[in-house]
Amino acid sequence: MPFGRKTAANGLLIDFDAVYRDLIAPAISDARLEPIRADEEQTGGVIHTPMFERLILCEYAVADLTTANANVFYELGVRHAVRPWSTVLVFAEGMGQLPFDVAPLRGLPYRLTPDGAPDAAVRSALARRLQEARAGAKDSPLFQLVDGFPDVQGLRADVFRDRVRYSHQVKEQLAAARKQGAEAVRAVEAALQDVATADSGVVVDLFLSYRAVKAWKDMIALVEHMAPPLAATVMVREQLGLALNRDGRGDEAERVLTALIDERGPSSETYGILGRVYKDRWEAAARAGQSLLARGLLDKAIGACLQGFQADPRDAYPGVNAVTLMAVKEPPDPRREALLPVVRYAIERRIAAGRPDFWDHAARLELAVLGKDEEAAVLALADALANVREGWEPETTARNLRLIREARERRGDGVAWAGGLEEALVEASRNRP
Q1: Are 68 and 76 spatial neighbours (Cβ–Cβ below 8 Å)?
Q2: Residue range 165-184: average pLDDT?
Q3: Close Cβ partners of 69 (under 8 Å, ≥ 6 residues apart)
Q4: What is the pLDDT of residue 45?
Q5: Which of 84, 195, 239, 292 is most exposed, with the fewest beta carbons within 10 Å of its own?
Q6: Which residues contact 95 (CB under 8 A, 6 or more apart)?
Q7: Number of helices and strands (H, E) in the chain?
Q8: C-alpha–C-alpha distance, residues 218 and 216, integer Å
Q9: Kind and range of the H or E element at 275?
Q10: Measured in Å, how far apart are the chain's first and last C-alpha atoms?
């Protein structure tokens, strides 16, 4: 772990000495182990020698991944290469998502007080993790995912080349299958035989191919067969939440997404999908005539989208969803007036940066409809239609435009021309598998 008082990239102060003194060391003692901090040991000679000895020989290790310190990550890599189990990971909440390579690992988050010290409430949970480590379950991704490791002599180069070639072939098959529909994608999965041992890139491509053809049940089932480290990744869990919600299992989707936020901290994507879960519940409650429940769910949807936009203002789409829902609310939420310019700036900045995708143009389209700017809306629609990748994308945007149009009609402030935009988006959705 780092030492001393450090300032994270987001400006928050972290007192790593206090983290060790008040959280890690007591938890280690609670687990009936002896705490030894790497930088506390004073030894002569080359500094790497005692460091490597500690990493290789200590029976249990705790690594603090907060601030993505390069030294910590190097030492964690060494540890994972030589010890198949007994390495426990912790990190401070509120620092954004962990880097991609360690995001799937089972880390334990802890909260920080305003002065940068740890909230010791997680001490007992850390002690339990250390006690669980005694059972010898593999926590090193190298030992989990690479067959035969550490016998690297047995991992021949030709085997590696064959796997790369095979992965490329399967991805080409999936690209063709997405144009044919769900049955074609299922046929590719059947040919893989064992998803748990298949190349992770192929499995992710298969997962997203099911999303492209709206095969929500297949997405959900696939997660159950994935290798545990892959199933635990942020992306897979976020998309599992999306699939559960689309399959009518909103309660399960909410549990998956809120657990992910609790573990990994706020994320624009996670909160954006959670906002969609609450939005769907709001519409269902409104259709059922449950006006009070619908009002509460709409507030939850707005709150989730706002938190998503605040987590990463560069990702404009949660912000667009927030202002859309604020405009639909009766009476309209006055906060939307202050939020609109910020969201509009975020969208234009993304588009100006180059390579905008469907969602960037869809966001611009929704804002144009909210602003009753027909000319800008038509131009944004043309760009959005030219960037459609999957059928559910225009379907989602058409639904948002319908909400805006119907809310304005109820207030006698109609945008009748928006109906034609919705029809064009629905038609684009029909033309995709």
Answers
A1: no
A2: 89
A3: 1, 2
A4: 44
A5: 292
A6: 8, 9, 10, 12, 66, 67, 265
A7: 21, 5
A8: 5
A9: helix 268-287
A10: 49
Instruction: Tell me which fold the domain 233-430 belongs to.
Output: 1.25.40
Tokens standing for 331?
Answer: 């009476």
Partners of residue 5 on adjacent β-strands = 15
Using a 10 angstrom Cβ sphere, with 0-12 exposed, 13-18 middle and 19 or more buried, the burial of residue 170 is buried
Q: Is the pLDDT of residue 236 over 60?
A: yes
Provide the β-strand partners of residue 91.
109
The three-point CA angle 148-154-160 to 5° equals 90
pLDDT in tens, 237-279: 999 999 999 999 999 999 999 999 887 778 889 999 999 999 9
Q: Which helix (H) or strand (E) holds 14?
A: strand 13-15
Give yes or no for a contact between 36 and 65, defined as CB atoms under 8 angstroms apart: no
**Dist CA 319 CA 340 (whole Å):** 8
CB 87 within 8 A of CB 139: yes
Contact 1, 64 (CB under 8 A): yes
Return the ∠ at Cα 172 (arms to 166 and 176), rounded to 5°: 145
Q: What tens digit of pLDDT does each residue of 359-400 get?
A: 999 999 999 999 999 999 999 999 999 999 888 899 999 999
CA distance 282 to 331: 16
Q: Which residues contact 30 (CB under 8 A, 6 or more apart)?
A: 123, 124, 127
pTM of the model: 0.67
Q: Which helix (H) or strand (E) holds 84?
A: none
152 in helix, strand or coil?
helix
Amino acid letter for position 151:
D
| Domain extent listing, the chain | 5-145, 156-232, 233-430
What residues are paired with 92 via a beta bridge? Answer: 110
Beta strand segments in 52-160, E? 61-64, 87-92, 107-110
Nearest alpha carbon to residue 67 among 136, 148, 121, 1? 1
- DSSP class of residue 199 equals -
Take residue 51 and report the two structure tokens written for it.
Answer: 């460091």
What residues does 98 pair with on adjacent strands? none
